[in-house]
UniProtKB/TrEMBL annotation:
Its EC number is 2.4.1.142. It comes from the Eukaryota. Pathway: Protein modification; protein glycosylation. Participates in the formation of the lipid-linked precursor oligosaccharide for N-glycosylation. Involved in assembling the dolichol-pyrophosphate-GlcNAc(2)-Man(5) intermediate on the cytoplasmic surface of the ER. It is a single-pass membrane protein. Its main location: endoplasmic reticulum. InterPro entries: ALG1-like. This is Chitobiosyldiphosphodolichol beta-mannosyltransferase. One of its GO terms (molecular function) is chitobiosyldiphosphodolichol beta-mannosyltransferase activity. One of its GO terms (cellular component) is endoplasmic reticulum membrane. Pfam families: Glyco_trans_1_4. The lineage of its organism: Eukaryota, Fungi, Dikarya, Basidiomycota, Agaricomycotina.
Length: 544
């Protein structure tokens, strides 16, 4: 059974089994309210619910981090799997509350039999965490949407029982994601839309990732409660990697990056001798023979000098190699709403253009060369194997392009992003109202971005200022060429980097310095933006 089919079946079963079970649960818990006064919840306490892998939910992890840094006892509720960001395991006011997985024996039974049990198990597990295991009613209850079913109904129930102030963080619209598979007119899509609008209409506050989403939902669903646009921003530790950091990342033989680069790309990458050089960096020292030939294009790597040597005078820091390939990254979930075929077709065109340009570069015309292009695609998803099989067949004949798939934990991910030249985003919003978090991460690491165009993308990517916007594979291929011509001294790429760096805002005396929303384009860290937008919302500490 395919993943797409399974996801659709889950939504259908959720709509009917979930609603029935929620109704029964609601009736059963009404009695519980008599013994838990609503005005006795704990001030400066918050529960953050994400119905998914905590480690793969960056925005919700950042919410939890910011609440904890502002003195809130923070309970982050969700599933395990990927490792969360390091601060969530070190901050004293954060408690990770992992939801239990369904019993293993259910996996051996047919879906139609196990689905109701899994749904019941999920609902009971969430209610157990929010109503019982969190000892005192939290002041705030923050929930990620989507998924809408059953989370929006559950937090409404818990908020009513325990007197929590519910905050809905609108990442996207759940019914629009279902519509990608079933179509907008399908009965289940209409039911899902009703569910989302009904249980999402009223809350203490609504957070939106874009102005477009706020305007749409306020108009269409008449949302009740405070409304705040909280654009995604990267955490403060995201930055462009230094040559030393790049060298350490690619010379460490225990990282997934090293394992992928060494065996599969030996004939594509320049020669490297870790730990003294990598395909991207070099710490070799010039020898006497090398000094007599300063114009050598590819000087041999000098062996390391012993500590007892009388000629040992200095340790050279790593530098970026002039003969390195251009490392470009694209983060994807490998799902139909991110068409990897666009990138694959663009890579085919780049290979053809590089062959043509580089074969004519030595004809005396002085035409600039195009470099080798190493495309690294991060992420996990159902279409990964299908596309990477196609890539493997194609690149057997390619000379100038290679494409690899990598998966990194949260600790290494920003270092890897910061090692690249620029990023490519294939995100096409199901609702046309959300923005891709992957672009936010890339900007945080100092990378300009080539991004697939859709309705509200200009709220994040400004064409010609912090990146380039494309509509199809042909446009993307042209942008790859324009950005990489004369690499590593690529003028357009340098211009976009300078613009991105200039737009970055830094705190003054610990205060946020984000610009007003009327500015054409602005930038700040997650912490600065969160303090500017969220602090006024949670500063009251008033009992309900």
């Amino acid at each position: 059974m395919s993943t797409t089919t399974t996801n659709s079946e889950w939504n259908v079963v959720y709509l009917f089994s979930g609603l029935a079970l929620l109704f029964l649960t609601w009736k059963a818990i009404v009695f519980f309210r008599l013994f838990r006064p609503r005005n006795e919840h704990a001030l400066r306490t918050v529960a953050v619910l994400v119905l998914g892998d905590i480690g793969r939910s960056p925005r919700m992890m950042y919410h939890a981090e910011s609440f904890a840094e502002n003195g809130f006892m923070t309970y982050l509720v969700g599933y395990g799997g990927s490792k969360p960001i390091p601060s969530l395991e070190t901050l004293p006011k954060i408690q990770l509350c992992y939801l239990p997985e369904p019993p293993i024996f259910l996996k051996s039974l047919p879906f139609i039999v196990t689905a109701p049990f899994k749904i019941a198990h999920q609902i009971v597990s969430i209610l157990n965490e929010l109503l019982i295991r969190i000892p005192e009613p939290p002041e705030y209850l923050v929930v990620q949407n989507p998924p809408s079913i059953p989370t929006l109904a559950l937090v409404a129930l818990v908020g009513r029982i325990r007197g929590c102030k519910v905050i809905i963080d609108w990442h996207n619209l759940g019914y629009s994601i279902l519509a990608l598979r079933l179509g907008n007119e399908h009965l289940f899509v209409k039911i899902a839309k009703w569910f989302e609008a009904t249980f999402g209409q009223s809350a203490y506050a609504h957070l939106f990732v874009t102005e477009a989403m706020k305007d749409y939902l306020v108009k269409e669903w008449n949302l009740q409660g405070q409304k705040i646009v909280l654009h995604d921003r990267p955490p403060k530790h995201f930055h462009h990697s230094s040559p030393q950091e790049i060298h350490d990342l690619f010379s460490n033989t225990k990282t997934p990056i090293s394992a992928i680069l060494q065996p599969s790309l030996a004939d594509f990458l320049p020669e490297a001798k870790p730990p003294y050089s990598t395909p991207f960096t070099d710490i070799s020292k010039p020898t006497d023979s090398e000094s007599s030939h300063p114009t050598s294009a590819n000087p041999p790597l000098a062996p390391p000098l012993p500590l007892t040597s009388q000629t040992y005078t200095e340790v050279n820091p790593p530098t970026l190699r002039a003969d390195r390939p251009a490392l470009v990254v694209s983060s994807t979930s490998w799902t139909p709403d991110e068409d990897f075929g666009i990138l694959l077709d663009a890579l085919k065109i780049y290979e053809e253009r590089a062959n043509a340009v580089n074969s004519s570069a030595g004809d005396g015309t002085g035409k600039a060369k195009l470099p080798k292009l190493l495309m690294a695609v991060t992420g996990k998803g159902p279409q990964r194997d299908m596309y990477m099989t196609q890539v493997s067949k194609l690149q057997k004949k390619w000379k100038w392009v290679r494409c690899i798939s990598v998966w990194l934990e949260a600790e290494k991910y920003p270092l890897f992003l910061g090692s690249a030249e620029f990023g490519v985003c294939l995100h096409s919003s199901s609702s046309a109202l959300d923005l891709p978090m992957k672009v936010v991460d890339m900007f945080g690491c100092g990378l300009p971005v080539c991004a697939l165009n859709f309705k509200c993308l200009p709220e994040l990517v400004v064409h010609g200022k912090n990146g380039l916007v494309f509509n199809d594979s042909a446009e993307l291929a042209k942008q790859l060429e324009f950005l990489l011509v004369s690499f590593p001294d690529a003028p357009l790429l340098a211009s976009l980097r300078a613009s991105l760096e200039q737009a970055t805002r830094h705190p003054i005396d610990g205060q946020a310095t984000a610009l007003p929303d009327t500015e054409e384009w602005k930038w700040s860290s997650w912490g600065e933006n969160w303090n500017l937008k969220m602090k006024p919302l949670i500063a009251g500490g008033v009992r309900t």
